[in-house]
Write a structure and sequence with these properties.
Blueprint (H helix, E strand, L loop, with lengths): L3 E5 L5 E6 L7 H8 L5 E6 L4 H11 L4 E6 L9 H13 L7 E6 L1 H13 L5 E6 L2 H7 L4 E6 L2 E8 L4 E5 L8 H17 L2 H9 L1 H4 L5 H20 L14 H10 L6 H20 L3 H13 L11 H8 L10 E8 L2 E7 L3 H8 L4
The chain binds nicotinamide-adenine-dinucleotide, the ligand O=C(O)C(=O)C[C@@H](O)[C@H](O)[C@H](O)COP(=O)(O)O and zinc ion (ZN).
The site of the ligand O=C(O)C(=O)C[C@@H](O)[C@H](O)[C@H](O)COP(=O)(O)O has 11 residues, from loops.
Length: 361
Amino acid sequence: MSTTQIHVTGGGDYLVNIGRGMLADPEPFFGPIFGPAVNKVLIIHPPTMGAIANKLREQLMGEREVLLAEVPDAENAKRVEVAAFCWQVLGQADFTRSDAIIGLGGGAVTDLAGFVAATWLRGVKLIQVPTTVLAMVDASVGGKTGINTAEGKNLVGSFYAPHAVVCDLDVLEKLPRNELLAGFAEVVKCGFIAEPEILDILEADVDVATDPTSTEFQRLIELSVGIKARVVSEDFTEQGQREILNYGHTLGHAIEHAERYTWRHGAAISIGMVFAAELSRMTQNLPDEVVDRHRRILESLTLPTTYGAEAWEHLLTTMKRDKKARGSMLRFVVLRDIGQPTILNVPDTSILFTAYQELTA
Ligand SMILES: NC(=O)c1ccc[n+]([C@@H]2O[C@H](COP(=O)([O-])OP(=O)(O)OC[C@H]3O[C@@H](n4cnc5c(N)ncnc54)[C@H](O)[C@@H]3O)[C@@H](O)[C@H]2O)c1
Ligand SMILES: O=C(O)C(=O)C[C@@H](O)[C@H](O)[C@H](O)COP(=O)(O)O
Ligand SMILES: [Zn+2]
């Protein structure tokens, strides 16, 4: 299968390369981006990607000096202490404005590496190399970078577009099945907000659709990146349209916070999407069949669709810190129908509690 290139213009002008074998022969994808100006490259990676990071380092060495920064796994990477560690490595190795960073890992690492690239000397070149489904279809594209604070998810960050994204599907070979399926929550999100073909492919045969060696799998990655690319190219800094990518995230982020970031992001937004669908049924007349379709598809991916009744007050408090909130007004992405997202302003939270009761087991 050949490499597909998807062009993104928001915040810059770059390509998302989707294919196989790219990391076996990386120079054609990295060399032209680095050009002669890049003398030093820092690869930021989690422990699970140590072997691949080492190999990439050896392959890119020669034309430039390549260093590695191993950071804590998963959400533990998205902490200010870890960003400070990366700044220290860059400082001690005398990285200048003409040097570059590679984010090699899942969404946690691409969010961190993006933030470090945006802030080091106020911005150096960045190539994202996503290694999970979630990072391929969502986190590595579009330039939302950031870290968490004790109060909530992604509360500190910047909009900083990468200079290229390299999605080599071969790296998914060792991705644990539960991680792979969690990433599909963002694929399902793209299906409901903008691309019904995604839902049809998943419903036709979920095992084939989630087999990383199938053509259907690559098609799903391409369709999802296509949606993300279109939205962020139109509204890079989230002045309006981009908010649709937050479907399911208002409750989802609150669940991640309540679970102290031990849950997969995809699992949390799976529940968040069912909540948003219930809210859509109550306020936008979203047909029952579409709400049921959310549950059916997410459950076919073994993703959770219920959450504990006792958690409500805590979740509501956390949701008030959501970036879409304006003053005391909570705002949610809801659906009028498949492919027709809109924003719901919620001055009175009682309606949220009613929708939430549909989720409690
Ligand atoms: N910036 C954005 O637009 C955006 C979009 C969606 C999600 N996110 C963020 O992405 C994060 C979630 O990303 P994620 O689901 O990729 O989780 P993750 O980065 O925590 O990775 C999940 C796990 O898989 C391991 N792993 C990664 N690649 C692997 C591989 N190829 N083989 C084996 N193990 C591998 C990691 O070490 C980790 O343990 C969240 O912090 C979320 O907020 C950001
Ligand atoms: O790219 C976007 O815009 C998104 O909202 C994509 C989300 O899937 C992603 O989880 C993002 O990190 C959420 O951002 P936040 O602004 O709600 O923190
Ligand atoms: Zn997300």
